[in-house]
């Protein structure tokens, strides 16, 4: 009976046979170079207050009351379209595979794209917003490079800047496009006002920026005893900014934007990263679309999509610390409101025992009460809500590659001054990582990264790699098939790296099949966990003489 089930599964997988037509020898294939086009006009501005009201309150209520919601539960959502035949996201103007696609050192992960810090010397202040809850400036260094300067909110030194650095470096390592963010100590005497520098006055009118205003700013953003102020300098994103991106809408000014954001695994899976880092800001305004001119013809170029503004991550919420319920419920959570109403106020929110971290720079960031399945951004994000089980596994496969050493190095880049704060954040991230991977890997067998050396097929067990295999290491069974006929089989002790020698199968394949091989030169190796035989991973290989080439991978779901 089990053999019949396996044959049916393999027959189903072979029915599509799309992996037979894939470009071979490259697990992380890239799409063709982006289509170049003239600079599009600026995009219209979507007001944040309207998006917060519409997407954060009106749409969830309408969605909850609509009969369509019940019908959607019965329909399986289509899988993403930005994939290759291994379930990996291909390189594009949205995402560039890095960690997992190639070997990255701990230092490379920690430094990310922050390799061009501001040049030594005075900074020229071009202007900025020097009042309100989130003051900032635009400065230029001695080489002409421009940076946006962000300060930590008064009363919460290091909170926002630490989150910006940690999260931007982690997202860059995974593959998303982010600005270059640097921590920088500023003195008033290191700032030079540019001729014509302006700011906004009391009534939002443009007024000249003076040295007195600068000194007042420095005095209000957590100055140290030596007179310096910690700031986060974000290098200007390359190209010409045309406006915000979107987590829902496909923009027709970009010919490379063939897929809706909700149909991209890179955008769906981003939700799991934000879940891990507790970044509750999933608004469209946290993305930027920039037009990059072609080196060969500056009249043409393409649009790249950046993620920005990570100050709402970890325990912070931009200009303040998070409130206890942020990250656990939506800003307007109709389910919670209804639960409170119909229980006459006796409904107990599961997150109520959450307590502030014992460090001022950390805020509300914890792992004990945290439940990945229940995490919520401040307002619903259409791409995050479109995430399927396979999208979640893909994002989990990236998170699993962050070793404890990498996480520690990432947190060290935040340069917390409070003794024990860095250790607390690193330990919390590791604990949240373990919970997320337990959720992401539960419905699958997390074998990935197929590669061949001679006749030996190797894969990485990401659950063992990350140390979250339930009950320790396992024994896996494997079988090699050709045209649904069994070539060879065996068992192997599971570990971080597993390897099976397909030499006997390859020899039998070449000697027994004869000329038929040329018409169907593909072998499928199926791996299963005998304790959960319904879950398996099929690795498809092309036989090229004595060489095996991985051409595809598919996995069963629970």
Condensed summary:
The protein is an alpha+beta fold and 558 residues long. It is built from 16 helices and 18 strands.
Write the layout of secondary structure elements.
Blueprint: H1 2-16, H2 48-65, H3 67-72, H4 106-111, E1 123-129, E2 136-140, E3 146-151, H5 159-174, E4 181-186, E5 191-200, E6 206-208, H6 211-218, E7 229-235, E8 240-243, H7 265-268, H8 270-277, E9 287-293, E10 301-307, H9 334-342, H10 382-385, H11 389-399, H12 404-412, H13 421-441, E11 447-453, E12 456-461, H14 462-466, E13 475-482, E14 485-493, E15 497-501, H15 503-512, H16 516-519, E16 522-529, E17 532-544, E18 547-555
Parallel strand pairs: 1-5
Antiparallel strand pairs: 1-2, 2-3, 3-7, 4-7, 5-6, 8-9, 9-10, 11-12, 12-15, 13-14, 13-16, 16-17, 17-18
The CATH architecture of the domain at 2-27 and 445-555 can be named as Sandwich
Low-confidence stretches: 1-15
Rg result: 26 Å
The largest beta-sheet arranges its strands as: 4-7-3-2-1-5-6
Beta-strand residue fraction: 15-25%
Structural class comes to: alpha+beta
Range of helix content: 25-40%
- Give the integer mean of the pLDDT values: 87
* Distance between the amino and carboxyl termini: 19 Å
Regarding quaternary structure, what we see is single chain
């Amino acid at each position: 009976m089990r053999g019949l089930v396996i044959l049916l599964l393999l027959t189903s997988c072979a029915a599509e046979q799309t992996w037979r037509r894939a470009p071979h020898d490259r697990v992380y294939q890239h799409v063709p170079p982006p289509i170049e086009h003239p600079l599009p006009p600026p995009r219209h501005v979507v007001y944040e207050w309207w998006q917060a009201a519409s997407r954060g309150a009106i749409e969830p209520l309408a969605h909850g009351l609509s009969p369509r919601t019940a019908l959607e539960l019965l329909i399986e959502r289509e899988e993403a379209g930005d994939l290759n035949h291994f379930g990996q996201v291909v390189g594009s103007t949205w995402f560039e595979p890095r960690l997992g696609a190639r070997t990255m050192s701990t230092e490379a992960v920690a430094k990310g794209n922050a390799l061009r810090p501001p040049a030594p010397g005075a900074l020229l202040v071009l202007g900025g917003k020097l009042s309100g809850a989130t003051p900032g400036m635009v400065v230029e260094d001695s080489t002409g490079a421009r940076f946006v300067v962000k300060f930590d909110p008064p009363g919460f030194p290091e909170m926002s800047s630490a989150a910006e650095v940690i999260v931007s470096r982690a997202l860059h390592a995974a593959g998303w496009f982010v600005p270059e963010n640097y921590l920088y100590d500023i003195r008033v005497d290191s700032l030079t006002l540019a001729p014509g520098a302006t700011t906004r006055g009391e009534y939002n009118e443009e007024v000249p920026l003076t040295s007195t205003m600068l000194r007042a700013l420095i005095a209000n953003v957590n100055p140290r005893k030596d007179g310096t102020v910690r700031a986060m300098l974000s290098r200007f994103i390359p190209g010409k900014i045309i406006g915000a991106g979107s987590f829902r809408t496909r923009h027709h000014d970009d010919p490379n934007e063939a897929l809706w954001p909700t149909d991209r695994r890179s955008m769906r899976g981003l939700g799991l990263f934000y879940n891990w880092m507790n970044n509750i800001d999933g608004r469209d305004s946290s993305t930027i679309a920039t037009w990059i001119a072609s080196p060969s013809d500056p009249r043409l170029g393409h649009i790249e999509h950046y993620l920005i503004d990570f100050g709402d991550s970890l325990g912070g919420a931009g200009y303040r610390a998070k409130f206890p319920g942020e990250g656990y419920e939506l800003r307007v959570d109709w389910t919670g409101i209804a639960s409170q109403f119909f229980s006459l106020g006796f409904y107990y929110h599961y997150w109520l025992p959450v307590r502030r971290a014992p460090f001022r720079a950390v805020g509300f960031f914890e792992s004990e009460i945290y439940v990945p399945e229940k995490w919520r951004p401040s307002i619903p994000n259409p791409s995050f809500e479109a995430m399927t089980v396979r999208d979640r596994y893909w994002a989990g496969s990236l998170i699993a590659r962050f070793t404890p050493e990498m996480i520690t190095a990432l947190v060290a880049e935040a340069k917390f001054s409070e003794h024990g704060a860095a250790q607390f954040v690193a330990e919390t991230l590791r604990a949240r990582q373990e919970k997320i991977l337990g959720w992401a890997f539960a419905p699958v067998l997390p074998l990935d990264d197929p590669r061949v050396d001679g006749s030996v097929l190797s894969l990485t067990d990401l659950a063992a790699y990350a140390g979250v295999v339930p009950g320790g290491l396992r024994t896996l069974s494997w079988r090699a098939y050709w045209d649904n006929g069994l070539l060879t089989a065996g068992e192997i002790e599971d570990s971080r790296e597993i390897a099976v020698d397909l030499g006997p199968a390859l020899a039998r394949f070449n000697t027994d099949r004869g000329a038929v091989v040329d018409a169907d030169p593909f072998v499928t190796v199926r791996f299963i966990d005998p304790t959960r035989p319904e879950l398996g991973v099929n690795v498809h290989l092309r036989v090229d003489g004595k060489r095996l080439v991985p051409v595809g991978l598919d996995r069963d779901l629970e």
